[in-house]
Write a structure and sequence with these properties.
The chain has helices at about 10-20, 30-40, 45-55, 60-65, 85-90, 95-105, 145-159, and strands at about 80-85, 110, 120-125, 135, 140. By secondary structure, it is an alpha+beta fold. Belongs to the complex I 24 kDa subunit family.
Length: about 160
């Protein structure tokens, strides 16, 4: 999977997003969210444009992108599987389930399978504490996960 494919019209699309949102108070996070919504990730080529337009250093923008786990630095797979890593889920066995998912997919968190099918991401609360452990596959939440349920989710994502 080529993670460095050029994005058509990236400069113009980025500049348009920045111009639409730079009037907000604290515009960097909303701009980064919109960039990710537009491209599916935050392309490296966007960072200098954002920095220039917000009068920030490129290092400041890079620091924000790398600090927050929600921002992807590479295109996601066709499916995104998010595993809850919050305390309630951990207390109900999510660490063991996470290791099972990593083994089934052959990847770690923040990685995508070689065939581009699945990106695995940690998330730090899905609001399903009463049904822990929980996960989200392509925006759909799943609770009360056990070995069979998590294997089914992985199989669904691999299809």
């Amino acid at each position: 999977m080529n993670l460095h494919m050029p994005v058509p019209d990236i400069d113009a699309r980025t500049l348009s997003i920045v111009n639409d949102l730079k009037g907000l108070e604290g515009p960097l996070l909303p701009i980064l969210h919109e960039i990710q919504a537009e491209f599916g990730y935050v392309p490296e080529d966007c960072l200098p444009i954002i920095a220039r337009e917000l009068n920030l250093s490129r290092a400041e923008v890079h620091g924000v992108v790398t600090f927050y786990h929600d921002y992807r630095r590479h295109p996601a797979g066709r499916h995104v599987l998010k595993l809850c890593r919050a305390e309630a889920c951990q207390s109900m066995g999510s660490d063991r389930l996470a290791e099972k998912v990593k083994a089934l997919l052959g990847i770690d968190f923040h990685e995508t399978t070689g065939d581009g099918a699945v990106t695995l991401e940690p998330v730090y609360c899905l609001g399903l504490c009463s049904t822990a452990p929980a996960a989200m596959l392509d925006g759909e939440v799943h609770g009360r996960l056990d070995d069979d349920a998590i294997a089914d989710l992985v199989a669904e994502a691999r299809r």
